[in-house]
Write a structure and sequence with these properties.
By secondary structure, the protein is of the alpha+beta class. Helix content is 39%, strand content 17%. The protein has a six-stranded mixed sheet, sandwiched between helices. Strands 12-13-17-14-16-15 form a six-stranded mixed sheet, with helices on both faces. A six-stranded mixed sheet has the order 20-21-19-22-18-23, with helices on both faces. A hairpin with a 5-residue loop joins β1 (43-46) and β2. The two termini are 33 Å apart.
Length: 936
């Protein structure tokens, strides 16, 4: 996991001492000092109806995160009504009495970002970040679905969302190891335990639910007295109180949700099971039910999990993966809920290794941590990593992990919005003795041991498709609360000033200043990318990048992992079509030490032969895993069909060609590194709170004397694209409860073209929840959990790609419907005035929210450079959007997209799917999943 250390204005951190680059890099900031400086100021009040309101004022951007947390999740569901909380999460997006359209219709019209809803054991939450000028409207909408929902719930709406939920379940179940969650829950908890069933529930319970059952569930749990509303952003308490009272004050109090008693169960005896799945590797699990966040042992167990398998330098990584080479992947995680938790350790056996030996060593290493505890250094490294991870999300006001989340969780679970501070303080106070004691107390109890072995899946209990229903009509607009509040005057995007400099050796440095927090993010971008991978040796680049932090001339892989953990930083690598990136994320206080480590990794990789052999095995294991995944299979086939096998972008073959990777040598990796990971192909992009002069000095000290070795690599785009003729390629993956579909079409576009009109038009076609294709397959037909399509922009080619999972028995009809959607869009059913208006409004209004984080700014800097756009490009977008017409967008789409050129890739069970494809009118090619491994 990439660990990023973040914070924000509104999260107060002291200014650290500027490091001196002429001296030895300073020691990392102690974790105790780090967590003490984190603070989210807040005020709170409660309405007479019981609604608890928490306000965090943060003026860094003209946006406000609105987050509503209901004290209801799957643990509240009685027998026979499992899945109700999750179903209601869906229903509350389908319109309310005074806002009868799809919820996203309204949020899009006000430029909302970071919007979604989630359900888990303990809660259901809804969140969006909106321009401050739209706060009135956002509060109206949230209050309407809290207090005025029941009139909008119809039999057709319930049936529609039942179908969507069934496909959400199929989508998860269709993944390798996708059925483990059911075994885990059933084994660790009695069936009568509140945590004894999964959140998605039993489909039989949802199928049998009446509309009145569903309404009664809402009446019992969704009143204001069972909710916490958090506002975080550009709003003060007085304004918040006025607005919240105005919109929520009239909603009557409802019944109190009674939190069920949920003791931590202990198995009567160790339990061991074996299940089969179509997976690449045998995976061995060890699981225990443990306390939740309401128990002080939870933090100690977090640290124990980190020591065992969470750190890159964990006990399991070092022993089973690095030294003994028995496993290709290990993990350990303590997932804490409000009242209980699940402690899960796993290891994937290396092919050819006896799983019994892996299981034996796994148990021995767990036993050693229990008996002897971790070292002080291990505890400190886990605490630094976890503190960084907890703080990371606080850069955002809302979303999945922002400040609103931290405040709401504490309020709902522990009656303390500041509970996050207690957790961080507890983390910093951990000692080896405390971790040892908690491990001995909870992990010596009887274990649930599950082994997943490759093989045909056991019988799968398929969800029963509901009887076909008519499309859900919009609820009658009752108009009891007046018109929707207007959206005020929107603030313009203020994109940070971009500055340019050069290091002593000529490497260009592109920099933006963000002074809210003491954080530095950097990307070294090399002109390489997927297109630079070695023909006939695909996977060379991936293995080379993986090897960078597996040993330098002065540090071995464990020393590198430990150094990153002590710094609370991350150094990662990866490749896009045109660029290869090595990224760094660090507290600015550790800038000198982190840039020194970054330079050592980039400039001095050792490529130790023993480590090369180990990493090759891991890469081969990933390739095998890709061949069992529906997405992995489709994405390995897609590039050749859309670009032509000889085109540079067709090298995007997942983790590579297994035969080629197996034959790679150290010399191959050294040759790639010297040809592509070199200063004359590099640009450095930085977003930081430190001034440009200091950043330049830091990078000059570590990279300014870097010189290339040997000739530079050259990418050859002289070959023409040679896309396949339209057809359907059916990849036979037996036992698939869902078909995964990719549709791709070439275009004449290149990345440096002005694609803004096309990308704006695609918002209506495939780029948004309200897009034609998603509303068709998900909302109108409920055959899919979601559909998305976009232009895959690269420097020299930009095809269109659509992806979705559909229920297996609707595969053929889904393709036919999607083909109709595309054909209509570029002929007789172009963008309507409503679609145009909401797209343009959203595009302009969402800009401040889109660039709330420094990571978003860093990505924008790199995109502008790659596509040769000016530094102020994003600041000019509102004017460009306002100049568009619907006709102009239609014309752009019709010029670029030809629905007749699409190639369709279907990954599914051919026995169920093949017969559905004949009526579509395209040639059908059936290939077994195993043959996808052969790139030739």
């Amino acid at each position: 996991m990439t660990v990023k250390l973040l914070a924000l204005s509104g999260v107060a951190l002291a200014t650290f001492v500027t490091p001196s680059f002429a001296q030895t890099a300073p020691k990392p900031v102690p974790v105790a000092d780090l967590v003490k400086q984190v603070d989210i100021p807040y005020s709170e009040f409660r309405l007479p109806n019981g609604l608890r309101v928490i306000v965090n004022t943060d003026h860094k951007a003209p946006v406000v995160a609105v987050s509503v947390w209901y004290n209801v999740g799957s643990k509240f569901e009685p027998k026979g009504k499992t899945g109700f909380a999750h179903l209601f999460e869906h229903l509350m997006f389908n319109g309310s009495e005074n806002a009868p359209k799809d919820y996203f219709t309204y949020t899009k019209a006000m430029g909302a970002t970071d919007l979604n809803g989630t359900t888990y054991f303990d809660r259901t939450n809804y969140f969006e970040t909106v321009p401050v000028a739209a706060l009135d409207r956002a509060l109206f909408l949230e209050s309407d679905r809290m207090g005025y929902l029941l009139g909008a719930i119809t039999p057709a709406v319930v049936d529609e969302q039942r179908g969507v939920v069934q496909n959400e379940k199929r989508q998860g179940d269709n993944q390798p190891y996708g059925l483990v969650q059911y075994k885990q829950t059933e084994a660790l908890f009695p069936a009568t335990h509140p945590y004894g069933h999964t959140t998605i529930g039993a489909m039989a319970d949802l199928d049998s639910a009446s509309v009145e059952d569903v309404k009664n569930w809402f009446r019992g749990h969704y009143g204001p007295n069972n909710a916490v509303l958090v506002l975080s952003g550009d709003v003060d308490v007085a304004t918040a109180k006025t607005l919240v009272t105005k919109y929520f004050g009239a909603i009557p109090k409802g019944p109190e949700s009674v939190v069920p008693t949920a003791d931590v169960p202990t198995l009567a005896a160790p339990k061991s099971e074996v299940m089969k799945d179509r997976v690449a590797n045998t995976r061995i699990y060890r699981m225990w039910a443990v306390p939740g966040i309401n128990n002080p042992d939870a933090v100690a167990l977090d640290v124990a999990a980190g020591v065992l398998g969470g750190l890159s330098s964990s006990r399991l990584d070092n022993a089973l993966v690095r030294k003994e080479k028995l496993a290709v992947r290990v993990s350990a995680n303590n997932e804490s809920f409000a009242q209980v938790g699940m402690f899960v350790v796993s290891a994937d056996a290396r092919p050819g290794v006896d799983p019994a030996l892996v299981a034996k060593r796994l148990d021995e290493i767990i036993a050693d941590v229990i008996a002897n505890g971790p070292t002080a250094d291990e505890v400190a490294r886990v605490a630094t990593r976890d503190a960084a991870g907890r703080i990371a999300g606080l850069e955002s006001t809302g979303g999945f992990g922002g400040k609103a989340v931290a405040l709401a969780e504490g309020a709902l679970y522990e009656n303390d919005p500041g509970f996050y501070k207690k957790q961080l303080a507890e983390l910093a106070a951990q000692t080896p003795a405390r971790v040892k004691a908690a491990s001995a107390k909870w992990l010596t109890r009887p274990v649930y041991a599950l082994t997943v072995i490759p093989g045909a899946r056991d019988a799968y209990v398929e969800a029963t498709p509901p009887v076909k229903v008519a499309a859900a009509p919009e609820a009658e607009f009752k108009g009891t609360r007046g018109a929707l509040p207007p959206v005020g005057t929107l603030s313009s995007l203020v994109f940070p000033k971009v500055e340019h400099a050069k290091l002593k050796n000529g490497i260009e440095l592109i920099y933006a200043y963000r002074n809210a927090v003491p954080i530095t993010q950097a990307s070294i971008s090399f002109d390489a990318g997927v297109a630079a991978d070695v023909p006939g040796k695909l996977g060379t680049q991936g293995l080379t990048l993986d090897m960078l932090d597996e040993g330098t001339t002065t540090r071995d892989s464990i020393a590198i992992a430990e150094a990153k953990e002590r710094l609370g930083a991350s150094i990662t690598s990866g490749s896009a079509p045109d660029r290869t990136i090595v990224g760094m994320f660090t507290p600015s206080a550790n800038l000198a030490a982190s840039t020194e480590l970054l330079a050592d990794i980039v400039r001095h990789p050792k490529f130790d032969p023993a480590e090369v052999a180990r990493l090759k095995n891991q890469q081969l294991s990933r390739i095998s895993a890709e061949l069992t995944s529906p997405q992995g299979l489709a994405l390995r086939v897609f590039p050749k069909l859309v670009y032509g096998a000889a085109y540079p972008y067709a090298k995007a073959l997942g983790s590579g060609d297994a035969k080629a990777v197996a034959a790679l040598t150290r010399d191959d990796l050294v040759a790639f590194q010297q040809a592509w990971i070199r200063p004359d192909k590099a640009k450095i992009f930085v977003v930081s709170d430190r001034p440009l002069a200091e950043i330049k000095a830091a990078f000059d000290a570590r990279f300014g004397d870097w010189t290339p070795t040997g000739p530079a690599g050259v990418k050859d785009f002289s070959v023409k694209t040679a896309p396949s003729a339209p057809k359907i390629v059916l990849i036979d993956r037996p036992d698939s409860p869902q078909s995964f579909i990719i549709a791709g079409a070439p275009t004449a576009l290149v990345g440096t073209d002005d694609l803004l009109p096309l990308e704006t038009a695609n918002d209506t076609l495939g780029g948004d929840f309200l897009s034609r294709v998603n509303m068709d397959l998900r909302e109108a037909r409920h055959w899919s959990y979601g559909v998305n399509g976009s232009f895959r922009r690269a420097q020299y080619a930009t095809p269109y790609l659509l992806g979705t999972g559909v229920q297996a028995d609707k595969t053929g009809e889904s393709i036919a419907s999607l083909r109709t959607d595309f054909a209509d869009f570029v002929t007789t059913k172009g963008i309507t005035s409503d679609e145009f208006d909401r797209t343009i409004t959203d595009a302009i209004s969402s800009l401040p929210g889109n660039f709330e984080t420094s990571g978003a700014v860093l990505g924008a800097l790199q995109s502008n450079d790659l596509y040769r756009r000016p530094d102020d490009y994003y600041a000019t977008l509102p004017q460009k959007y306002r100049g568009f017409t619907a006709g102009q967008l239609d014309a752009a789409a019709r010029a670029a997209l030809d629905p007749k050129r699409f190639v369709w890739i279907v990954v599914g069970d051919a026995a169920k799917v093949r017969g559905q494809l004949d009526s579509i009118g395209l040639p059908v090619e059936v290939i077994p999943a195993a043959s996808v491994a052969d790139v030739r």
